[in-house]
Amino acid sequence: MKKDIKSLYYDELAAELKALGEPAFRAGQIYTWLHQRTVSDFSEMTNLSKALREKLDGLYYITAPKPIRKQVSAIDGTIKYLWELRDGNAVETVLMSYKHGNTVCISTQVGCRMGCAFCDSTIGGLVRCLEPSEMLDEVMFTQLDSGKKISNIVLMGIGEPLDNFDNVIKFLNMVNDERGPGIGMRHISLSTCGLTEKFDKLAEYNLQLTLSVSLHAPDDETRNKLMPVNRNRGVEQLYSACERYFKTTGRRISFEYAMIDGVNDTPEHARRLASHIRKIGGHVNLIPLNHVDERSFEPSKPENMRRFIDILQENGVNVTVRRKLGGDVDASCGQLRRKMAVGRN
Ligand code: SAH
């Protein structure tokens, strides 16, 4: 069985090459081809002998997703890619351009098993986790195809990053590595629906990334209805996990809140949210709910959203509203989904 060479840390690659009898500088050459030059085949590694390229080809494979669809938003230029993976599965990646740089939104799993009631990505459940190489490819191949230098990464595509913990940590370290893309942790956001049991473990790594928590409701009654993940954990457990995370890392948490008409957008919800956030600290990012065909929820009415924002602000909560990007190509939050490599349009 061939091994996934791009999922090896530099030191792991160096150890394997040493065991093959190669001199120490080979690791640097090969790592650069894989992590900075985005080659798809060993034959492209022109500074290696033909014999070595053939030997490596016998032992390892290089992941290289194929773009099976690319959609460009006519409204704001957001690009959505559908990549075909090595095993025929497919995931979506979104590239958004802002004044301050280009942000790529990557998927971390093929499908998702979290079951949030308003989200398209979870329909059909989880198929499998993405490998570190496949997440790196989303960044690197998006950059290569679009010709746009990526400056920021958000783990906000399909899947629950903390449900693929070890691969996500490896990906984060690799994408941060100066011998690879070298993207700073402060330019990376990881979004979670609240797998609280993983928060302390994540905090131990003390990565300086931004942790975003998809809260969407301040109380158990509302949150249980929307997010099955809450049912055996509860908001109190979530709030205390957030407090501990902040204490350990010193990084303020960003809370995502999708505004759903008549479900989580009343003044009472706003007041309860404000009282919790004031206690924990952090910032609230409101997202007007995006349309998902299979779901019956509607976005909040503008006047209710305004009232919600006013209550948060009156209570001293720092709040922003997320700008919708890529709406005409279904590239907005919650609209990404697993697709068959050949299939549904
Ligand atoms: N599983 C992680 C990563 C997904 S990020 C998480 O839950 O955070 C995608 C973000 O979009 C999450 O905040 C998610 O709750 C939100 N979202 C899902 N469906 C949405 C919809 N229809 N409208 C707006 N936001 C949505």
Question: What does this molecule look like?
Answer:
By secondary structure, this protein is an alpha/beta fold. The chain is 33% helix and 21% strand. The protein has helices at 10-19, 25-35, 50-59, 132-146, 165-176, 199-205, 220-226, 235-249, 267-280, 302-314; strands spanning 3-4, 60-61, 66-72, 79-84, 89-98, 101-105, 109-111, 126-129, 150-155, 188-192, 210-214, 254-259, 283-288, 318-321, 339-340. The strands form 3 sheets. Strands 3, 4, 5, 6, 9, 10, 11, 12, 13, 14 and 15 form an 11-stranded mixed β-sheet that branches. The protein is elongated. The mean pLDDT is 95. S-adenosyl-L-homocysteine binds next to β10 and β12. S-adenosyl-L-homocysteine (SAH) is lined by residues 114, 116, 118-119, 156, 160, 191-193, 214, 256, 258, 287, 289-290, 292, 333-334.
Quick summary of this structure?
The protein is of the alpha/beta class and 345 residues long. It has helices at 10-19, 25-35, 50-59, 132-146, 165-176, 199-205, 220-226, 235-249, 267-280, 302-314; strands at residues 3-4, 60-61, 66-72, 79-84, 89-98, 101-105, 109-111, 126-129, 150-155, 188-192, 210-214, 254-259, 283-288, 318-321, 339-340.
